[in-house]
Amino acid sequence: MREKHQPPVVMYGLIIVLAAQVNMNLFISNFKISTGIIMFSVLLLLAGKYPVIPVTLFSAAGVYASRIAVDWFRQGTIGSSAVDNFPEMVFYLTYGVLFFLYCLKHNYDWGDFHIPVFFFFDYAANLVELALRLGAGAFTWKHQLSILLVAVLRTASIWCIYLVLRYYKFSLLRREHAQRYQRLLLLISKLNGEVLWMKKNTRLIEDTMNTSYHLYQEMQKERPDSELSRQALSVAKDIHEIKKEYLLILRGLSEALDLNLDDEGMHLKDIFTVLENSLNTAPTPGGRTLCLDLSLEEDLYTEDHYFLMSIFRNLITNAMEAAEHEIVHVRITQRLDDSHWLFTVTDDGPGILKEDLEDIFQPGFSTKINYDTGEINRGLGLNLVQDIIKNQWNGQISVSSHPGETVFSIQIPKSQLKGAR
Hints:
Elements: H1 9-19, E1 23-25, E2 32-34, H2 36-47, H3 52-75, H4 81-105, H5 115-134, H6 141-222, H7 227-261, E3 266-267, H8 268-281, E4 289-296, E5 301-302, H9 305-322, E6 327-336, E7 340-347, H10 381-393, E8 396-402, E9 405-413
Parallel strand pairs: 4-6
Antiparallel strand pairs: 1-2, 3-5, 6-7, 7-9, 8-9
């Protein structure tokens, strides 16, 4: 059965018929050596599990009809053309049947290119055609050497073309897999940040539940069995149930992430390459384009790459969302002093208002408002950045800003980055 999304049989057949028009007479009249069978083999090799017999029948009939049509165009009459070109049709049928039988035996799994097999296909099909034309004369040493040489040359051509096309196909697959891997890295980075927030909020849920229960106890002391005290107890119970469900979700996410967070680390340059590619291909407000300028004293390698990706993704995204120009310039520097990794992230945006500088790291603070819907950004990005830097690494982050320039400065103790070298 033909695999999904593969070209139809007619298209394959037409390509082979066109390729067969490139030909030459080798040593006897009408015995044409063409490139059609080369295209036949290459196309079916690359197609995998494909209906070989229909392609064979269409190709054989198409080549036969095209030969007759060409003779009629040149000579104005068909004459003996039908008889003269019939053996070539048999050649294609023989080659196709041998190809099909081999496919059945090996379940269409070629593995490495089998040079002797294709040499035999070509030689056997040529021998059948030559025997139809010359009878016993086909077995002279001169004719045998000729078709052996043709089989060698065409098999070598098939092998070379197949290797080139397969390498190109694999290159496209590697590129697609690389893009998928980049998207997976970003997804894990985002989920990792969300899990950190959920863990932080677990304490808030616990505190809220305890507060509700203490409120119930106080109300019971003053007015036992009052409706308000029962409502306070009900709130405490509901929060407890929410907490249990919340912890189950958190555990599931954490276990899923643990399977991915234990992989190898990344170098800084690779982290920023992933970020730049993803941010320039994802939809952005106003269709803005990121122009990232890196100045790295050392191409740091670390196993904390997901945290670093979360930090820089948030800072760069903020810069792109606040920008007033189509091209957003962000410069990132990295250097090492005696005990700290020092990073700066500088953008050329409108800057942050002086009265907002003290609040930007607070959860829920945001200046991003969608005036069409009234929706306000939840304002967790910079608080998440600060939380990772302070709680994961005992580091520090600060900001300075004026119109045309905002600079975030980050200090991370050298000993805190996991696997850093």
